Amino acid sequence: MKRTVAFFCALAAFAAAPAHSEILAALNYETKPGVAPRREGVAIIDIDPASPNFNKIVKDAPLPPDFVAHHIYFNQDRTKAYVTSLGRSVIAVYDVAKIPADPEIFPVPDCKVGEDMVFTADRKRWFLSCMGSSNVIMGDAQTNRTLAVIGAPKPAAGEPPRPFIEHPHGLTLNESLDLLIVTSTVDPADFSKAGETITLVQASTGKLLATQKVSEKPSPATEAPVETAFVPKKSPQTAFVTNMLGGTLWRAVWREADKSFDLAKAYDFSTIGQGMPLEMEYNEAGDRLYVTTAKPGALNIFDIAEPTQPKLLASIPAAAGAHHFVFSPDRRYAFVQNSLLNLPDMNDGSVTVIDLQANKVAGKIDVLQKAGFNPNCIILMPQWNTDND
Predict the structure, then answer these.
(1) What is the model's pTM?
(2) What is the secondary structure of 158-207 as a DSSP string?
(3) How far apart are CA 221 and CA 366, in angstroms?
């Protein structure tokens, strides 16, 4: 109780602090398992190791305790922030100038357990993956109303194969290919029911093109592909896939002739004693790949100059549940959020600061952890928004 009181006293003090240069990040958080009453919110935290307000909360506001916020995304012009909900068939949309205050809640009635979002470059549409209802919602990016529900059930035993969407999590949009990639991850009601495929969707129409297996094991394999991401400046276009439960990294090379991927396993994290690979990012040159693993928690750096043979350059310890991460604007630091769905042994609650010049831990952001909260996502605020009254 004393820690919680101190936490909210600190909020008032820093809300009144004068403006200064800083690196601000938005983190949605929730109480740790078994803590009552349950609380959720979004906090803006100064994560700049050189700032006098490092590891301090600049702004904070609650979310409904049954929202179960998971991801935060910006729209294309970074004027709005979208928060997906695991607990309700809605999305929360913030004016970035006001975040974390005054979200507008929009219903998405056909979506259960909303996960990832992507936005079209023309600012007209968004896509939302719905792991509980096994579909993807196409929405209007101006009104946030549903335009289409994209989905098809998995064929029953004995039926001919066809594309399907089952328990989708990851979404990747490649508009140059008119392609949306949807991962089949896990049944949110039963994590033992995991997928093994990615589904390719024509982004302009929502037509399902193909479902491809991302496993060398006999079906059904509990791989749980969770995210895909295209390598920048690569020809032919190449993506990587993280298999959360399979513990592997897969490489996918686009085949224009038949509109599908050449898929192959690229790396097995069990060889370095790690599991649960999750998020991916690249450097601007496209020759480095960064991957978090949640168990025991690390940020891994690969040389992907030759994407068919990623070479592990460094594996830097983070903490249990290493999940989403962001880079400082100058790419000097990576900030790794350590909590995966409040799961046992994967809910440390801190943010690890990693010096990417030295490839070592440079600090820890634990203001939420000390107050009894776990952050579920971290996203860097736009630089025009980094000075706050």
Answers:
(1) 0.92
(2) TSPP-----SEEEEEEETTTTEEEEEE-EETTEEEEE--EEEEEETTT--
(3) 37
